[in-house]
Amino acid sequence: MASAALRKQLEDTIGGPLALTPRPDPELLSTGIGEVDTQAGGLPRGALTEICGPESSGRTSLLFSILARAGEAGEICAYIDTDGTFDPASASAAGAVLDGLLWVRCSGNAETALKAADLIVQGGGFGLVVMDLGDTAPRTAARISMTSWFRLRRAVEHTRTVLVAVEREPHAKTCASLVLELRRARVGWSGTPGCSQLLRGLRVGVARRKPVLAVQASFTARAV
Q1: What pTM was computed for the model?
Q2: CA 154, 157, 163, 165: dihedral to nearest 10 degrees?
Q3: I want to staple 156 with a disulfide (CB 3.0 to 4.6 A). Which of 3, 163, 189, 192 is the partner?
Q4: Beta strand ranges found along the chain (DSSP E)
Q5: CA dist., res. 1 & res. 48, Å (int)
Q6: How far apart are CA 180 and CA 169, in angstroms?
Q7: How far is the CA of 150 from the CAs of 85, 153, 157, in angstroms?
Q8: What is the pLDDT of residues 149-171, one digit of tens each?
Q9: What pairs with residue 215 in β-bridges?
């Protein structure tokens, strides 16, 4: 009853009936991995995506695939390297276009990485911005305030930028539109066990933790 009265009051104020306009689906950037895109749909533009998982869970393989796909699409990308772990040679071997990549090194300072991400997103012109906290201790990453995450989310809204945070654990909570959790499912070796073996690949499981509808996929990260 109260809602009907409020609706009528609003309609009287604006001089016409209220019309609810559905929010359009966001434009998506492919991850470059068909199995992940089929299940997760791709990475939304104008939003924050979290990619999380422990060491050797396939985070870097997925990230390099995303960088390569963005480069193929002609996107200018920024990579905020919090802990100095980015390897340009490996990224290039995976297909990343280094000529279109801004590499920001933060000497292990998560606060500097956060400020850099904020400035780059607000500056505009980037199709993909990655803030790599994958080697930052979870206790340190957890100190990033929700106010800071909210500011990043507001900065990227209404832009065509895909903002990706790579972490061991998700921290942005309601500020993230998409959360992908990675885990190592199987390791592939060649050679003689106990003698000489070569790493051939890694089977990676991917679970979409947000939106809440449980969706899982897997892909193979091959050793280069």
Answers
A1: 0.80
A2: 30
A3: 163
A4: 28-29, 43-44, 47-52, 77-81, 101-105, 128-132, 162-167, 178-192, 196-210, 215-222
A5: 38
A6: 10
A7: 26, 5, 11
A8: 999 999 999 999 999 999 999 99
A9: 208
